[in-house]
Amino acid sequence: MLDTRLVIILILFIMIDNQHLINLDNAALQSLKLPEFLVKDLKIDILRLDKIHPVISGNKWFKLKYYLQDARKKQFNTVLTFGGAWSNHIIATAYISKCFNFHAIGVIRGERPLKLSYTLLDAIDHGMTLEFINRGLYSRKNDDSFKKILEEKFGHVYFIPEGGAGIPGIKGSREILNVTETEGYSHIMCCIGTGTMYAGLVNSSLPEQEVIGIPVLKGIKFFPEQITEPPQKKDNCKIIYDYHFGGYAKKTGELIQFMNNFYLQTGIPTDFVYTGKLIFALSDLVSKNYFPAGSKILAIHSGGLQGNGSLPEGTLLF
Ligand SMILES: *Cc1c(COP(=O)(O)O)cnc(C)c1O
Description:
Layout: H1 2-19, E1 29-31, H2 35-38, E2 43-48, H3 60-73, E3 78-83, H4 88-99, E4 103-109, H5 118-125, E5 129-133, H6 135-138, H7 144-154, E6 158-159, H8 167-173, E7 187-192, H9 196-204, E8 210-215, E9 237-239, H10 253-266, H11 275-287, E10 296-301
Parallel strand pairs: 2-10, 3-4, 3-6, 4-5, 7-8, 7-10, 8-9
Antiparallel strand pairs: 1-2
Helix pairs in contact: 3-4, 3-8, 4-5, 8-9, 10-11
Bound molecules: pyridoxal-5'-phosphate.
Residues 58-59, 88-89, 163, 191-198, 271, 274-275, 302-304 line the site of pyridoxal-5'-phosphate.
């Protein structure tokens, strides 16, 4: 009898504690007071979602929360998701699952390497089971036949799509603009992987706000094919395809140098897969006079800094 009560109290305690898992107060706005912006009468703020949590940083908390809620409601004990060796989504899922007492399985693209990435080692530390799948099979990750094979191996699992792409991910991403006062901005900018965050921002922005997305992949067109739930019809959403730097996780010396300079000027670290490309785009668009004088721009720092661990040591100053 006493035991049951104790367990209930413990469970309540864990649930309450989870409320403090993410500290949204840390997502402070940082104003960029750089002369090249001020001279054009632009107010540019960065929403530092990279600071909300050391592991589940950036947009991943927003993208994952409704999946886990759904998994809990449907009484799953195990979640399964997909990603590459340096995936921010994989490490975030591993950590979040541990906090909410789910077992997590990460299906990883490619053969198991001799030396695992930091990301995967950390994921294992957080209790994730890894399953390496060759690239051919991995490309079928959304097929029912492949899911069947995974279910035969792992049993009854709750599937979270790669990158958290899907309606629960969009729903969570809508909440990004609630983190702080965002009504006064004329432009909102973010980078695009699957486009889930972008769709959420488009859905939750005001009609007069222009939402600019910067894809970090090459040769992929977004909307309507990429995202299951099309955003509300909105005329002023814009996707600019010029800043992928050769493709996903590709980089150039120019990008790395830009990230280092930006860090020296502002103290803001970026990652070379996502946010470095976003801030580069922002800066380039400013220099090309894309934004009319008086614009107020909010750029979303969507986190992902752990991915820089794949770079040779000394590449970045931070
Ligand atoms: C995962 C991730 C993204 C991509 O978000 P999508 O919703 O897939 O477009 C962007 N930035 C960072 C830092 C990420 O980790």
